[in-house]
Design a protein that fits this description.
The protein is an alpha/beta fold. Helices cover 38% and strands 21% of the residues. It has helices spanning 4-12, 36-45, 56-59, 64-70, 86-98; strands at 21-27, 49-55, 80-84, 106-110.
Length: 114
Amino acid sequence: IGITPFLAMAESLTPDEKRKIHLVHCVRDGAEAVRADMLGEASQRVPGFSFHLHDSAVAGRIDADKLQASMPFEVDGSELWFCGPPPLRNAIVSGLKKAGRKLGKIEFERFEFR
């Protein structure tokens, strides 16, 4: 499951974390969400960590505008870590660039059969 490495990262965060981290977990249906309770608890425990569950059945497919709207801090200069299908990743990155956003580092895991 694509969220797995991010779950481990969130569990390891401590309240003195200096980075601002915003995790968006996109699911086709809210019932598919994995460990959303733990991620919500981490966002309460760690001041610089925020979590947003994007339910596509309710809010439609995520895009650059929806991603930006979910973020509690400025997108410019932020790192984007992504695990998902290449078309979604490409749409988000190109949408952010088209909106004039200046992303920092972009890390991604391929989520596809090779």
